[in-house]
Amino acid sequence: MIHELYPQYFPGDHKTINNKKSLLYRADRIIVHSNQTKKDIIKFYPDLDTSKIDLVPLASSVILNDSTQITAPELINRPYLLFVGTRDKYKNFSFLLRSIERLLHRNDLYLICAGGGVFTSEEKSLIDKLGLSEMVAQITIQDQLLPLFYRNARAFIFPSEYEGFGMPVLEAMACGCPVILSDNGVFREIGEEAALYFNLNDEQMLNHCVERVLEDQSLRDYLIKEGFKREKLFSWDKTARGYYETIMKLMSHK
């Protein structure tokens, strides 16, 4: 299974690149979780036998149930935007901060960063420089609370430059949270028309996307409705069936 070819896009980790290359050529079957990863494999290894690549998408892991009815923490008692996961360089967290700085000040909004560990000294420095120390918070969320944070967010923002799949996109959609994504191949593949997209070279474009979701209730309702429909196209039953079919292909060649 190859989830993504991240090192090829951000060279430097030669060991990982060589290990993945060896696995790709030695494997009898290759499972990928997105068509984008399949395209990347073909791009970087054009002589590889593509007939042995099987596309098996993942699904959302969050479940909306009674646990989402618990009392909301004080932190989410006012409007906020949500960022989920690690903040590695390719996740473009600094870009996000710069893009929405004025919007946070103007609309009395929080930016909640769920998971990813405490802010680094560099992140704290930028947050302070932008005057956002009272508006940006990092918190560690228990799994059963994550749906609550998705559901109550004004929007979920994922500014990543590259992903192998992007499960938080489906998680947000499953919880009725409008989704705003960087315009890359895998996010278009997952979200299609159920999300807003922005160019990572254009801070104003992201700012405008957030403003639209905040101010246009009909757009917000549309994104929530289409998100529910889109997320339902992915399921762990389909994922399990895809893995099973790959195993059967392997067995038939023995």
From TrEMBL:
User: For the Glycosyl transferase family domain, which residue ranges apply?
Assistant: 77-229
Keyword Magnesium among UniProt keywords: no
One Pfam family, please name it. Answer: Glycos_transf_1
User: Superkingdom of the source?
Assistant: Bacteria
- Keyword Transferase attached: yes
Recorded hits in CDD domains, A to Z, give: GT4_MtfB-like
Recorded GO molecular functions are: glycosyltransferase activity
Q: Check the record and name the InterPro entries matching this protein.
A: Glyco_trans_1
Key words of the record:
Transferase
**Protein name per its UniProtKB record:** Glycosyltransferase family 4 protein
